[in-house]
Each structure stands twice: as C-alpha cells, then as structure tokens.
Please model this.
Amino acid sequence: MVPLSFAGEEWLLTEGRALYWPRERALLVADLHLEKGSFFARHGQLIPPYDSRETLERVALAIRETGARRVITLGDNFHDSAGSTRLEEHAAGMLHALTRTVDWVWITGNHDPEMEARCGGTLAEELELGGLILRHRAKAGEIRPELSGHYHPRLQLKVRQRHIRRPCAV
Model:
C-alpha cells in the first residue's frame, strides 16, 4: 500500500486503487460500474461476463487487507439503473455478504439516478465525514476538502508505436 496525505489526514492507496482512511477505518471506492458487461451484452457488445465478480473480489480483498469497518462508494455503483436486477446469483451473494459485513454507504452518481438500497447498505447523495465531503462529482466552488469519483483517470504511454492505457489513481 502507498501512504498519502490529504486534508491533514493519512491515507493508504491499495493495489486495487481503493483508498483506505485509517482514522475512520473506511475504505473508499469509486466507479465500480457493476454489471457493465451485462449492459453491453444487451446492446450486442460482448465482453467477459464476470466483471461484477472481479470487482467485488477486489473490494473484498481491500477490506481484508485494510481491516476496514466501513465502505463508502463514490458513485457510479452500477453501470445503469437496472444493473442491480441483472447481478448473477454468485455476484449478488458476494455483494450481500459484503454489505452485511461492513457499514456500507452507496453515494450515488450519474449512472445511479434510480438506485435503491436493494443490495444492502444505505444511500446518500454525498456524505460529510471527518471534515471531508465525499461525493461522486467534484462541485465547482467547493472550499471544503472533498473526495470524488467520476473522472476515471488513466495513464497513457506510447511505447514502440503502441499506445498503452491503464487506469490510475490521482
């Protein structure tokens, strides 16, 4: 894990790009886009159908590695408003187990306009915790420290005429 400082707080960035806040024992994750694969499959684009399982496995690993007692998602939890109804049985079981194990807060994002707490946990548009504002999209003019998702940062390199793009954390 990589140690970071922000807004007078110490943080740990996990290998899976989750952010752990030791003082609050909280794990922050953003833009899970659960059921993205099934959304694209319904529109004729086939990508591997286990994206939700893999994402939830990464979250579960980060919880185990950090000992987090709370998970706060920073929006775009499902890829579309019907995503939670398409979770296959194994992924749904994983998600329900996670939301029963820790205090789980779903902050909603632009992909979550009709999200319900049917997967466990609680819903919020934003959350103020320890002097920080947690939301999906940064708000222009906000003077308080905030953490948000939404922006999907990537690192792009050109190596021997090939473009390599990988997700990163900023």
The two ends are 15 Å apart (CA to CA). The longest helix spans residues 51-66. The chain has four helices and twelve strands.
